[in-house]
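Hi support team,

I'm filing this because I wasn't sure whether my run with hypoxanthine finished correctly. The job status page said complete, but I'd like someone to confirm that the output block is well-formed before I use it downstream. Pasting the exact inputs I used:
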Amino acid sequence: MTAAMQQLQETAAYIKQRVSGQSAIGIILGSGLGNLANEIKTETEIPYQDIPHFPVSTVEGHKGKLIFGELGGKKVWVMGGRFHYYEGYTPQQVAYPVRVMRLLGVETLLLSNAAGGVNTSFKVGDLMVITDHISLFTQNPLLGKNIDELGTRFPDMSEPYSKQLIARVQAIAAKHQIKLQQGVYLGVTGPTFETRAEYRMIHVLGGDAVGMSTVQESIAAIHSGMKVFAMSVITDLGIREEDNIITHEEVLQAATDAEPKLTLLFRELVQEL
Ligand code: HPA
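And here is everything the job wrote out:
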């Protein structure tokens, strides 16, 4: 067995021994979108710092935890706090919890994020179903020796976001008259927001939204054979006439405002899985 696989198994074994129960559903929530975690009937919470080989937080006072509990009548794993490349984690560290979830039996991964809109028909507060992504401006988490036990060296990426899950969420949204946009998420490293020229470039390249997370997690999930669903909340508009600046505070506020709709969609999707 590779050393990397050995580590992952040690991590998964520790978590299994702390939790009684199983789940095939994993959820990772984006900035300002953590409220869903409050809807969970928590059974066990494990601080990241207690979990062997888990990435250690670089931000002072940033207390991440892995939550096991119930949502919509189903058991779920939820990461309270995700790891971003811009914080100084390697792409492999960003992907680590996804791989651990796989070893814990997760088959479906739900992701959310805050993103900048570059599709000129988008408005702040829109929800965008991610139908595809462009990850070439970030580092691939599969670089390095392949972990053959998890998946193939050269994974196919023609359906990074499950069409079946997208259709289900679209039906749930229609039932509740929630408007959904859909489009391509382009992943960047951050932590700078983009210049006006960069937003325009992203638009020309086929991006509808841009953000600093998600793509590395999806790649690791697809590599290890999971189905992925991901949704962006459009928190700011990259392509714009106004000479306003973009701040982290406004991004968080827009995410918080849109969150109830996203929570409803995720909860009902989980119920149906
Ligand atoms: N760019 C990149 N990441 C983001 C943005 C943005 O405009 N908004 C929220 N996350």
